[in-house]
Write a structure and sequence with these properties.
Helix content: 25-40%
Number of helices: 23
Number of strands: 26
Distance between the termini: 75 Å
Strand content: 15-25%
Largest sheet: 6 strands, mixed
Strand order of the largest sheet: 11-16-15-14-12-13
Length: 766
């Protein structure tokens, strides 16, 4: 007790707050601005620069924090936060160094890539977006925050909101697809889920929207590559989800690797200051991506001192791993290349984030071992993950109602992804315990029940090329490559097929074939698996393709030949159960694509909200026309459009109406449509509304998503769905980058995907 009182006295004497040992006894401290100003007045320049430094934790094991390489810097006040350290025990040890051994006892931030769940893992973000359900998406982030915070984490590098229209880029898996409107809704939902509008809660964490900006549009779809586009495209097509996150109150922003207007984003003052802070009013702090500052050297922006000063003056506050701020800013300050006011503002923003998180009141707020034991990977969270995962799956084809399967007879489950639980969580699942994931084989056996016989054969490896498979199965995402010959593997598969009533082929990408630095030039299923699938089709048995992928694939051949295709993405730790729930009809599929599936990689980039040329194709059959904007060897339209997704039931759209054919700038229109479930199953349908601005001062897309509602209809039920249209739905950035709505004619389309043909029109008057 005596020692605790001494420690309490010392803490109060230096900073005016107590270093408490349990989360229950928080102390009152001064208001934020006053507290931060007082603390900064006590800080040396070295301590200020330390707050701007975000190193990785290295290999710190429990009980060895004090002897780790980073411990010395923490004790000297040279670290503002750490990332990639996991567990209450480890984090508490490291935090103890900061708040008991450093001079000013400033607590650390602890960040992690909590991208689509923590130990309870949800579908990859691209899959999650296909639910089109903002409540479910927000709930997934809330559960992730609950689990991460229970394990000591208080900051996540999520959501990633980069719009991408080129699935060659591997990180399309980590985003929400091609559409700025839908992406904006998801960005808001994710921020609200993580932060819960109140960072003082012990189960909320600081969100970090990334990657600002334009990271999803690299040339050639190659990761980290050059991005070059007009400002009008930036503001209309790529910026909206970032701004939505800022408007939702996101606490931090991560700079992207790519250049913007010829200057790397990490050092781009127009981007970080003029747009983010002055135009959008962002109040939090900006962190670089991993080594983002020193990477500007390779971009050709100067040496480490040059690029560190460039980033600081641009409006970047925290340096992830690069240590350029820590090692060069003092010299740049002496030389007049940066101002102390700029450094002070950066420090202030980081200290304010720590204040908002309650870390000054309780540095061990996120170190409750009881929570770590009771709130992570719980039965309830897994149940929700299973339900959400099932709603992310997209039924692409279902010829002759092959699905749902019956829980009887013999099912042959064949393919390299069939018994691959380590791959089910997908890319960027760093906190997942792979042994807890559920394979498709295990899920089908469980859901089908004792009355169904399930036979399994691998059939093929991921690819004939062993080196390729090694590169595509990193980070513990092994597929346990089979050393048998391709002939032996196929023979075993055909033997299983011969004994089966129906074949479920589990094929596609491995988890790490998409994700960061996993760009592809060939988007087809690997040839080894294509050969296996063709052999299975030749048996004459009905085949269901369960397609695993982290991006839209080119499955033109498969769409022609396979009777049923269920796109499963990578659905998380409960993937096996969720996929089986859909295959057997316990859940009616309701996912809708948020990224266009091309017919050919040569069509890329491809997206629904394109603009017309002066010579658009005049026929709807995709026939080649000379001197028109088309291909000589392929149709223009995609294989599966944005918003597409089938159900086991069918939906009919009728009776579309608009309240008036004119609207003034302060008015509002109501558009209604009747949606009827005309099939034999209860089901969910995402009703989508698109608008086309017929004539503009600049060219406008052929249509843009401006509203959607996910509804539930019982068999035979009809529902009238209504949308309100205001002038805000008609605004866009013109050539002067003014956000305006221009008077004129507009068409409204409503339906089940972006090719919807039910139409009404109106005029916006002056």
């Amino acid at each position: 007790m005596k020692n605790k009182l001494v420690l309490l006295f010392l803490g109060c004497a230096v900073l005016g707050y107590a270093q408490k040992k349990t989360p229950k006894n928080t102390v009152k401290i001064k208001p934020k601005s006053e507290f931060v100003a007082e603390l900064m007045s006590k800080m040396t320049l070295d301590e200020k620069l330390g707050q701007l430094n975000l190193p990785t934790s290295g290999d710190i094991t429990t009980g060895q924090a004090n002897s780790s390489n980073v411990a010395k810097n923490i004790a000297e006040g040279k670290v503002g936060g750490l990332f990639n350290i996991k567990s209450v025990q480890k984090i508490k040890e490291v935090q103890k160094i900061a708040v008991e051994k450093s001079r000013l006892k400033i607590p650390l931030l602890f960040g992690m890539d909590v991208i689509h769940g923590y130990e309870t893992t949800f579908p990859i973000p691209l899959g999650l977006s296909c639910t089109w359900d903002m409540g479910l998406i927000e709930r997934s982030a809330q559960i992730a925050a609950k689990e991460a915070s229970a394990d000591g984490i208080n900051w996540t590098f999520s959501p990633m909101v980069d719009v991408s229209r080129d699935p060659r880029w591997g990180r399309v898996s980590e985003g929400s697809g091609e559409d700025p409107y839908l992406g904006s809704q998801i960005a808001k939902a994710m921020v609200n889920g993580y932060q819960q509008h109140d960072l003082s809660k012990n189960n909320s964490i600081l969100a970090c929207v990334k990657h600002f900006a334009l990271y999803g549009a690299p040339e050639g779809g190659r990761d980290y590559n050059t991005v070059d586009m007009s400002h009008i495209r930036m503001f209309n097509d790529y910026f909206p989800p970032y701004k939505a996150a800022v408007d939702a109150g996101v606490g931090s922003v991560m700079a992207s690797f790519n250049e913007v207007d010829g200057i790397p984003a990490t050092g781009n003052k127009w981007l970080m200051t003029d747009v983010l802070r002055k135009q959008w009013g962002f109040k939090g702090f900006v962190v670089t991506d991993f080594t983002g500052i020193p990477e500007m050297i390779e971009h050709g922006m100067g040496n480490l001192q040059d690029v560190s000063a460039l980033a600081m003056n641009a409006g970047v506050e925290m340096d992830m791993v690069g240590e350029g701020f820590l090692t060069t800013l003092k010299k740049s300050l002496d030389e007049g290349r940066v101002k102390i006011e700029t450094i002070d503002n950066a420090v202030k923003l980081i200290l304010e984030a720590k204040y908002d998180l309650g870390l000054f009141q309780d540095p061990y707020k996120y170190c409750d071992e009881k929570r770590a034991k009771t709130e992570i990977f719980t039965t309830d969270s897994r149940k929700e993950a299973r339900s959400i995962a099932a709603q992310s799956l997209v039924l692409l084809k279902n010829q002759n109602q092959l699905l749902p399967l019956k829980k009887s007879g013999t099912i042959g489950l064949i393919g390299p992804l069939a018994d691959a639980k380590e791959n089910m969580p997908g890319t960027w699942s760093v906190a997942t315990k792979m042994e807890n994931a559920v394979s498709l084989l295990a899920g089908i056996k469980e859901v089908a029940g004792a009355g169904t016989k399930v036979l399994y054969a691998k059939g093929s490896n991921l690819d004939y090329d062993e080196t390729f498979e090694t590169n595509a199965t990193m980070f513990g995402k092994t597929l346990h490559r089979d050393s048998r010959s391709k002939e032996d593997l196929l023979a075993e598969a055909l033997k299983v097929a011969e004994q089966s009533d129906v074949i479920v082929a589990a094929l596609g990408e491995s988890a790490e074939m998409s994700g960061e630095s996993s760009s592809r030039t060939n988007l087809e299923i690997p040839q080894a698996q294509k050969d296996l699938l063709n052999a299975l089709l030749k048996t004459g048995k009905p085949v269901v393709l369960v397609l695993f992928d982290g991006r839209p694939l080119v499955i033109t051949d498969e769409e022609k030949t396979v009777p049923a295709i269920l796109n499963a993405w990578f659905a998380g730790t409960e993937a096996g159960y969720a996929i089986a729930d859909v295959l057997f009809g316990d859940v009616n599929p309701s996912g809708k694509l948020t990224s266009t599936f091309p017919r050919s990689v040569g069509q890329l980039p491809i997206y629904y909200a394109h603009k017309n040329t002066g010579r658009p194709l005049s026929n709807s059959e995709g026939k080649f026309e000379k001197f028109r904007s088309n291909y000589i060897d392929e149709r223009n339209e995609p294989l599966f459009p944005f918003g597409f997704g089938l159900s086991y039931t069918t939906f009919d759209y009728s009776n579309i109406k608009i309240s008036s054919d004119k609207m003034n700038p302060t008015g509002k229109l109501k558009v209604t449509v009747d949606v009827t479930n005309t099939g034999n199953f209860d089901g969910k349908e995402t009703v989508q509304l698109y608008i086309r601005d017929i004539v503009g001062s600049v060219t406008r897309p052929v249509r843009e998503l401006k509203g959607f509602q996910k509804i539930t209809l019982k068999k035979g039920e009809k529902q009238t769905v209504s949308f309100d249209i205001t002038v805000e739905d008609l605004k866009f950035y013109n050539s002067d980058l003014q956000f305006v709505a221009e008077p004129g004619q507009f068409d409204i389309f409503i339906g089940g995907n972006s090719t919807a043909d039910k139409k009404v029109s109106f005029e916006l008057t002056k």
